[in-house]
Amino acid sequence: MSRTHDRSQARRRHATPGRIGRVGRQAVPGPRVVIALLLLLGLVSVMLLDGYLRAEVGNDQRVRSDASASQVPNSVLDGGPFLSFEGGTAHTRSVPDKTIVLTFDDGPDPEWTEQVLDILDDNDVPGTFFLVGSMISRYPDVVRRMVDDGNEVGVHTFTHVDLSYQSSSRITREIAQTQLALAGAAGITTTLFRAPYSSTNDAIDNYSWPVYKKLGAMGYTSVFIDTDSEDWQKPGVGKIVKWATPKNGKGASVLFHDAGGNRAQTLKALPQYIKKMKAKGYTFTTVSGAQVTRSTQSTQSTQGIPGAHASPGNALQNNPDQAAHRTADTATRWEGRALLAAVAVAEWTVPGLAAALVVVGIAMMGRFGTMLLLARRHYRRRNRGRFTWGPAVTVPVSVIVPAYNEKECIANTLNSLAASTHPIEIIVVDDGSTDKTAEIAESLGLPNVRVVRQENAGKSAALNNGVRQARCDIVVMMDGDTVFEPDTVHRLVQPFGDPEVGAVAGNAKVGNRDTLIGAWQHIEYVMGFNLDRRMYDLLRCMPTIPGAIGAFRREAVLAVGGMSEDTLAEDTDITISLHRAGWRVVYAEHAHAWTEAPASLGQLWRQRYRWSYGTMQALWKHRGSVTDRGPSGRFGRIGMPLVVLFQIVTPVFAPLIDVFTVYAMIFVDLRASLLAWLAVLVVQLVCAAYAFRLDGEKYRYLLMLPLQQLAYRQLMYLVLIHSCVTAATGGRLRWQKLKRTGEVGTPMPGTEVR
User: What pLDDT shows up at residue 13?
Assistant: First the structure.
């Protein structure tokens, strides 16, 4: 959609698309801008959370190996698998003879962990599961069942990183976040810990030893193993059972995995292993149960009852302080539940948005391809030597210039019209200006210029007044800050040689393109607006006659009731009305108007906000066009879906491509993500270059395209979100006057504006 600049309208009042009509006058409410920004912030937060769940920023996969252990006591390196620091001194404990502690790493997993739990239940044995916090957050129901079934759980960090590489704050965060997730999932915390990539005592080195001392001071028992099934290698069921079997009746802390890959062999080996060990007289317990049993054995041995075994369950009941699980306090449980809720949102939102972006990406590529094909066809058809609209139009036309406080621009505008090669009458409708706009227009002493004064009533009222005052059958409408080339009017009205044509859209160009913002808008006008119009022209569903330059049959305008005050987008409104009345709307690409685009981000925001919101209002007002029959229903069948898709839906999602690119660069694959983004940029660059070629523009402005994609597109996204929020909340919006400088003069045909 292409329109030009805003006008103040003190008495106009507008409703949302759902309630077209008049509502109270007031400025744009600030909270809606805040809501728009909060939506973006919320999306970014959700994506960061999702990325963190998969791998913290940087995706740290470093694993230390072959480091010296000179600072680690030999009693720890050669000791039992349970390491604690009572009184600040390292102590290790072993698993009692004929006792197995089944430990599982890397879960929970919704597929494999559930089946492991089934096997443990069927064989009436407990397990100790060392859980990854990010997996707990994603699959809390599995953890809840795990604990309810009497199994024990421990911390296996939040993102499964080698802690020997991490800072002290990162280590604390890894543990605390896992505990928070555990509290949210099962209402408990745990004192058990196992570090990734460090399953046995001899894996402790000078780098990781301070980590274990830190965790010991925090009250954690670090759990290692002395028997490894090595099921992660998938060596076969027989070898898994063999490697998990301790020798000579010794007790063992045995490692299996319930996540991290295909665990089909583990599931087959586990029941065989349990039956084998039970047949050998082994009992199964948890880490806490093994420690209590060892303590009980030591006490009994001291009392002269060697070899006596206490029941782990009874021992834990008699020594509740030895249990690893602690009931989380209320605040921690609620914080954990909040984390799980946020993760659930991320788990649904990010994949959903990713799928939506695939659809949007396909739509965008399809749009680019369609625009290129139809624009080329349009150019070749319109620029053939024998093309004509019919008899040349030479009759005088009326040019209507609505003006409100245009003292900086009105002289340039009227002087450009005075140089017109086509016979015209000029009607300046002064809409209650307070800066002597009307006086300036009259003082120029130009022929065929009439100044009509009215009380401030808004742009639509000014245009309707001008149409009533017009003496010619064809009226040209322009803005008071726009300038025409000498042959613009003549080129603009030639399509009226076809009696089916009711309105003509001209080619609006940015005159003040020497600034960064101006250059961005120049690219947008040439690529987005004018290339679009070529496509819509061929499809006969032009959505908008731009306010900067448009021509109409006077009878057609009057027949549809003139310029409506129902929406902020009066140009889109009347264009759709003409379609529905059976008139054809076309594009005259050689009829140039030079307009002064907003010079600051604030002015640009206000202009595009009004455009976006006004378009939504117009589309809602004419929603019934989708059921129109016959030729007059062409816009509803073709134009309406295209406008909704390409001017509302796609722009909302398109900037997310950049956001997802950053997400993928940080959390997935930097090189592949960057190459994908560059590929999309190249496609856009090709389209833009072709649009510049068709419009005869200099290519040097395309150097601004990458920066436009990074900054300008995000601003347009926020504007559109702001408009959607206003529409959804019943917001009110008044016309807003943009500050003008009058720097855009009247270029001669073919002259490049610098």
Answer: 38
105 is known as an active-site residue: yes
pLDDT in tens, 280-339: 999 999 999 998 765 555 444 433 333 333 334 443 444 444 578 999 999 999 999 998
- Residue in 14, 156, 257, 590 annotated catalytic: 257
What pLDDT does residue 499 have?
Answer: 94
Strands (E), 173-220: 188-190, 192-193
φ/ψ of residue 20, rounded to 5: -60, 130
Is 6 a catalytic site residue?
A: no
**CA-CA distance, 216 to 214, in Å (whole number)?**
5
Q: Tell which residue, 5, 735, 742, has the closest CA to residue 437.
A: 742
**Amino acid in position 155:** V
Q: For residue 754, what pLDDT is reported?
A: 38
Gap between the Cα atoms of 388 and 407, Å rounded? 39
509 bridge partner residues: 594
Which residue matches tokens 């340039």? 412
β pairing state of 192-193 and 221-223: parallel
- Residue 472, classified by CB atoms within 10 Å of its CB into exposed (0-12), middle (13-18) or buried (19+), is middle
HEC per residue, 88-131: HCCEEECCCCCEEEEEEEEECCCCHHHHHHHHHHHHCCCCEEEE
Distance between CA atoms of 44 and 52, rounded to whole angstroms? 12
| pLDDT over 60 (residue 582) | yes
Most confident of 43-52, 376-385, 411-420: 411-420
- Predicted confidence (pLDDT) per residue in 132-154, tens digit: 998 999 899 999 999 999 999 99
Instruction: Name the catalytic one among 5, 6, 50, 105.
Output: 105
Question: DSSP per residue over 633-678, as a string?
Answer: GHIIIIIHHHHHIIIIIHHHHHHHHHHHHHHHHHHT-HHHHHHHHH
Residues 6+ apart with CB under 8 A from 180: 133, 332, 335, 336, 339
pLDDT digits (tens, 9 = 90+) for 526-565: 887 778 888 999 999 999 999 999 999 999 999 999 998 8
CB 722 within 8 A of CB 30: no
Which residue matches tokens 């007002």? 621
Tell me how far apart the terminal alpha carbons of the chain are, to the nearest angstrom.
25
| Residue 32 clears pLDDT 90, i.e. is over it | no
User: 710's torsion region: left (phi>0), alpha (psi -120 to 50) or beta?
Assistant: alpha
**534: helix, coil or strand?**
helix
Q: ∠185-188-189 over CA atoms, to 5°?
A: 110
Long-range contacts formed by 611-614: CB under 8 A, 24+ apart:
611/1, 611/3, 611/569, 612/648, 612/719, 612/720, 612/722, 612/723, 613/568, 613/569, 613/723, 613/726, 613/727, 613/731, 613/733, 614/567, 614/568, 614/569, 614/570, 614/572
Token pair recorded at residue 507: 């080619």
**Count of H-run helices and E-run strands, the chain:** 27, 20
Tokens of 586: 């076309």
Closest CA to 310 of 297, 291, 298, 319: 297
**How many Å apart are CA 386 and CA 752, to the nearest integer?**
28
Asked if 183 and 334 touch (Cβ cutoff 8 Å), the reply is: no
What is the secondary structure of 138-181 as a DSSP string?
H-HHHHHHHHHTT-EEEE--SS---GGGS-HHHHHHHHHHHHHH
